[in-house]
Amino acid sequence: MRPIRVLVVDDAVVVRKLVTEALSSDPEIEVVGSAANGRIAIAKLSQVNPDIVTMDIEMPDMNGLEALKELRKTHPSLPVIMFSTLTERGASATLEALALGATDYVTKPSNVGSVAAAQQRIRDELIPKIKVLCGRTGGLGTTALVASAGTNGPAPRKVRVAPVSDRRIDIVAIGVSTGGPNALTALLPELAADFPVPIVIVQHMPPVFTKLLADRIRAASRLNVHEGAAGGMVERGHVWIAPGGYHMVVRRERDGVRLVLNQDPPENSCRPAVDTLFRSVAEVYGARALGVILTGMGQDGLRGCWDFADQGAQILAQDEASSVVWGMPGFVAQAGLAERVLPLREIAGEITRRARVGRSLSPPVPGRMSVLTPR
Q1: If you average pLDDT over residues 117-139, what whole number do you get?
Q2: pTM score of the predicted model
Q3: Which of 196, 264, 331, 358 has the most neighbouring CB atoms within 10 Å?
């Protein structure tokens, strides 16, 4: 099998060299070209015929966002990984790039102490994504995660009996990773302003990125979308996205259910982790929870879905065709845990249908939105 062909685009000579050397250390990857700005990169596409492109955002002459727009006109399905800075400006530009059609992103190493440490960080974060997006890991996740599924994952169990889908739910918990910002931006605005239960979300993202993602979705949504905050009240009409760098869990207090944040060790190499959130939701809400696993690399969320299954809670998963990477939902579906496996366009409607079970619409008041009330 021939190596994966990569085009590296960055205006900094040092960064191009760093990325090229890090990627070239893997025998399955070949850096076939580099470019100092987007205009040169567009010209080189037909010359080097890459399988994937890594794209800096801030570059002279033609920046990464401008290059991405041009590239998508002629190469609509070519994977592009944005290489962004871990700053508010970098995060904002990265979210814009994802909306314009970038496939994924990684953040540039900062404060890592040495060139060797920076290269190792690039190898750890960039190489697995390149392999997954180029179909070298069977689609379910990184090689390490796929290999570990049988040894370090949950013990094999009988496929569970389907839960009662006409049981009232009191919370929706969503886990998502690669492709998640666009998936959430498509899904959440489809939910009505009177959506009757709270929503808690883990989207694998670093600090700064999660706040900007919440702000971006809130501007397009009828719900109150926030970055998770310690002590936040988990109540209807509110959506909480776990902050980068922190696990987010729910805990029942005397006055209701509130959010708790911690910096315990990562799970599945992630913090925030879906498993951490789902475990707490299963403990607090039991069978009255709905778990939703969307597009993402790896298997974070699989153990959490087993916790949901043990409680008789309901689980939905995104289908392979509409996922950027069918890793997280794929593991859940193949374990027999998902009640339904649906394309993204159908998930908001299915969530709404299940959230309305056990509740009825109050009579509409002229000039006022109808409200869902418990039966």
Answers
A1: 88
A2: 0.90
A3: 331
Q: 3-class SS at 35?
A: strand
Q: Does the annotation mark 238 as catalytic?
A: no
Please give the order of strands across the beta sheet that includes 52-56: 29-35, 4-9, 52-56, 80-84, 104-107
pLDDT per residue over 311-350, tens digit each? 999 999 999 999 999 999 999 999 999 999 999 999 999 9
Q: Which of 11, 300, 307, 319 is labelled catalytic?
A: 300
Give residue 145's pLDDT. Answer: 38
Whether 247 sits among the annotated catalytic residues: the reply is no
User: Does residue 177 carry a catalytic annotation?
Assistant: yes
Distance CA 88, CA 79 (A): 24
Question: DSSP letters of 182-232?
Answer: HHHHHHGGGS-TT--S-EEEEE---TTHHHHHHHHHHHH-SSEEEE--TT-
Length of the chain: 375
Q: Structural domains in the chain? A: 4-136 (3.40.50.2300), 171-374 (3.40.50.180)
User: Is the Cβ–Cβ distance between 325 and 296 less than 8 Å?
Assistant: yes
Catalytic choice (204, 275, 322, 323): 204
> Mind listing the pLDDT tens digit for each residue in 209-228?
999 999 999 999 999 999 99
SS3 16: helix
Q: b/e per residue, 157-171, with b = 16+ CB within 10 A?
A: eeebeebeeeebbbb
